[in-house]
Amino acid sequence: MDTPSPRKAATDQDLGGESMRTVLIAFGANFAVALAKTAAALFTGSASMVAEAAHSWADTGNQIFLLIANRRSARAADTNHPLGYGREAYVWSLLAAVGLFVAGSAVSVWHGITELIHESAGGENYAIGYIVLAVAFVLEGISLLQATRQLGGEADRADRDILDYVLETSDPTLRAVFAEDSAALIGIGIAFVGMALHQLTGNALWDAIGSILVGVLLGVIAVILIDRNRRFLTGEPASDALHTAAVARIENMPEVAAVRFVRLEYVGPKQVFLVASVDLMGDYAESRIAPTLRKLERDLERNTHVVDAVLTVSMPDAE
Questions:
Q1: Residues 33, 140 contacting (CB under 8 angstroms)
Q2: Angle at 122 between CA 118 and CA 127, to 5 degrees
Q3: CATH number of the 6-233 domain
């Protein structure tokens, strides 16, 4: 198969520019929040704040994985990788999800259980904790708004509900940022309630429970992200809507009489590999079949989302 032209490779990189911007905003927000939460955890001794600090450091590390995913998956196809490097996005995003599970979920749950068993005094300087949580809420909200804005536009174009689109999108970095920022805002709410109940009752039990709940939340998010990346790595077919659009596009080609079979498989974010079997118009001489099919393949590959197309002539129907 021919490798994509430089023009097409550049266009594919442009398509990932918005996702890169979303990840960079998330990285900046998470790094600032992680520093603030760590300082607040040292001052307050709050178990919930410790869990939130672990959460933010895990998110910050994950953004680095997502940045690597964006850069490596955007590389142009070559001889060794004729379908490009798009699937690397799912590998690095999978590592980010595992990191969220280990560094975020496991640490938070472990710290909460430790606090339950060996209750520490903690609880001083609640005001610092509340201020940090408020600042973190604003910064995480800004990052979430960027991810939601990008997802909302793409969901509208696909005529899908935004939450459905988050689960189904082939862009793992965008899904990860949206999921992690959503979890961060919920986690901040849990930490606030845990600290407030600790302050009101004087019982550190509530703070420890808050830490455990934050860990469980992160675990659920991580498992969902791991499963989605696993599915795309093992060969996720395109949606029914994309399949229908591909069939219609091929049927509209003047050389095609009928479409017998179409298979669309994701090979990267917003990138598909198309395989189809068609009937050609009229009676083509054997010497003309291969050039005609290759022309049709090139026409299909002009779509920036089609990394490669392979067409074959279908077997004649049995009489």
A1: yes
A2: 150
A3: 1.20.1510
Task: Map out the domains of the chain as residue ranges.
Answer: 6-233, 240-313
Q: Which of 4-13, 225-234, 281-290 has the highest mean pLDDT?
A: 225-234
Q: Which CATH architecture has domain 240-313?
A: 2-Layer Sandwich (3.30)
CA distance 133 to 233: 37
Digit-coded pLDDT (tens) for 145-180: 988 988 888 888 878 888 888 888 999 988 988 998
Burial class of 115 by CB neighbour count within 10 A (0 to 12, 13 to 18, 19+): buried
Cα–Cα distance measured from residue 69 to residue 83, given in angstroms and rounded to the nearest whole number:
16
Contact 242, 272 (CB under 8 A): yes
Q: Which of 286, 276, 273 is closest to 253 using CA atoms?
A: 276
The angle, 0 to 180 degrees and rounded to 10, between the axes of the packed helices 47-73 and 172-201 is: 170
